[in-house]
Amino acid sequence: MTDNASDRQIRIFDTTLRDGEQAPGCSMTLREKLRVAKALSELNVDVIEAGFPAASPGDFESVKAIADANFGPIICGLARCNAGDIEKVHAAVKGADRHRIHVFVATSKIHRDHKLKMAKQEIINSAVGAIKMARELCDDVEFSPEDASRTELSYLAEVVTAAIEAGATTVNIPDTVGYTVPAEFDKLFGYLVSHVPGIDDITLSVHCHNDLGMAVANSLAAVQAGARQIECTINGIGERAGNCSLEEVVMAIKTRAEFFELETGIDTTRLYPTSRLVSSITGMHPPRNKAIVGENAFAHEAGIHQHGMLQHSSTYEIMRPEDVGLSSSSLVLGKHSGRHAFRDRVQELGFELDEFETNRAFQEFKKLADKKKDLYDGDIEAIIMNVDNASVGPWVLQSLEVQTSTDQPARAAVTLLGENAEVASASAEGDGPIAAAFQALEQVTGVDLTLRNFELHSASRGEDALGEVTVTVEHDGSNYRGNGTSVDIVEAGSRACLECINRILRRKDRGSDTDSSADAERATI
Ligand code: KIV
Ligand code: ZN
């Protein structure tokens, strides 16, 4: 390793919107993807893989919208090795000043024999043809030999050599099934570095899955062996056990800079707000003990640890909470807190809201402060995350009444306000209050749903904590996800259910699929 600054620089390629979004339950709408893309650009990632445009018209539209927004990072789209996919990626990403086409084909024997039913040379020909075609459309072309970590080393080197000769500017080595271990991956990268002519002229990249819990460790082994781009996702979301977690790999490089002698361009103070944004949108909340962004990541409970911390924080803390965007103070706001204090806290928490968003969030804050004595950071974050969804109709929840008892079915009555100011009400019974409220919402809107998943998360502490509910429902063979928050969990659930109903109705109204939250419509890779 040299002292040359560019040699030390690791590019962060974020694939939250492609590999992350591909995971069950993590699909996002176009608006949500745009919010995440903006947050990723504020985090200062180098590349945003915005999606897989050939997967569905919705995916194409969202990649195009992100590219057209031109937030700053390179915008990349994924393609199989065929002309149709490559043309779609190009059409979707070309609006961004800096854009990339990422083509992939599987190379391992298992994939060759059972999935592709193609011989070794056919795969090389297909990769070379695709890279050459992509290079005619774009100067920045990435190639990935899928399942590289289970591919014969000499064949992998042959494929990578051919890819570089064909014009690939980045070659990415995926551990697609999360099978490798750090020492083995180090050997694989070492082999490629010493056997592939021209490898020094391209960017070598790594892409790890977390099936054995080693995605971050394997990615770090790869950069030590010469990789200069890491592909990762916020909160490590992704297929199965997920992908390499962006916040973990970035903080490992920063915290152990004297060991790795590497750096990234990430603004680490944006890590926590970005993690919060992604978990609130997807409803996939990191476990409490998750490194860097878990609720307990900086909590010191044991007396001996607390004593040490009071003497000097470095006794038990290797990173400062503020380095990852967690505020160090635990200021509590209440109903007498003014707009100024609210806005300051929002900024300290790392959110950048414009005047309009601040006003809307402040109104919600005041409503919540009437119901709840103390408002913690988690409550404020939940308000900010949801302020965007609340206004999207056609239906808005006006009132909800619920009756429960231990020996009677639960009853719920809902009143909704429609977009033409019409008021509609219905009441229903159910086994529990959630079932009754959902029944009433289905009746009043005429939309039939099957509940597939219901998740409740407490946004802050205390009995009056704000509950964040994420529901997934099925309607006409497609899945829809909605979020809702309230101090009352039945109300939070009803708001989440109503968001699903609104998405279904908006989609019907449009008569087309520009809402990529419909998992069922997505083609599989
Ligand atoms: O895991 C994988 O192999 C991938 C490739 C498409 C890069 O996601
Ligand atoms: Zn992957």
SSE inventory with pairings:
Blueprint: H1 5-8, E1 9-14, H2 16-20, H3 30-43, E2 47-51, H4 57-69, E3 74-80, H5 83-93, E4 99-106, H6 109-116, H7 120-137, E5 141-146, H8 153-166, E6 170-175, H9 182-195, E7 203-208, H10 215-224, E8 229-232, H11 246-255, H12 257-260, E9 263-264, H13 271-282, H14 303-311, H15 339-348, H16 355-371, H17 377-390, E10 396-403, E11 410-417, E12 423-430, H18 433-445, E13 450-458, E14 467-475, E15 478-486, H19 489-510
Describe this protein's structure:
By secondary structure, the protein is α/β, with parallel strands linked by helices. The chain folds into three domains: 2-282, Aldolase class I (TIM Barrel); 327-387; 396-510, 2-Layer Sandwich (Double Stranded RNA Binding Domain). The chain is built from 19 helices and 15 strands. Mean pLDDT is 90; it is low at 512-525. Zinc ion (ZN) binds next to loops.
Helix content: 40-55%
CATH topological fold name of the largest domain: TIM Barrel
For the terminal residues, how far apart are their CA atoms?
Answer: 37 Å
Question: Strand count, sense and closure of the main sheet?
Answer: 8 strands, parallel, barrel
Cα gyration radius (Å)? 24 Å
Identify the strand order in the major beta sheet. 1-2-3-4-5-6-7-8
> Which CATH class of the largest domain is shown?
Alpha Beta
Total number of helices: 19
Protein structure class: alpha/beta
**Low-confidence sequence ranges:** 512-525
Bound molecules: 3-methyl-2-oxobutanoic acid, zinc ion
Mean pLDDT: 90
The assigned CATH architecture of the largest domain is Alpha-Beta Barrel
- Looking at this structure, what is the CATH superfamily of the largest domain? Aldolase class I
Shape: globular
Strand content: 15-25%
Secondary structure tally: strands: 15
Please give the domain count: 3
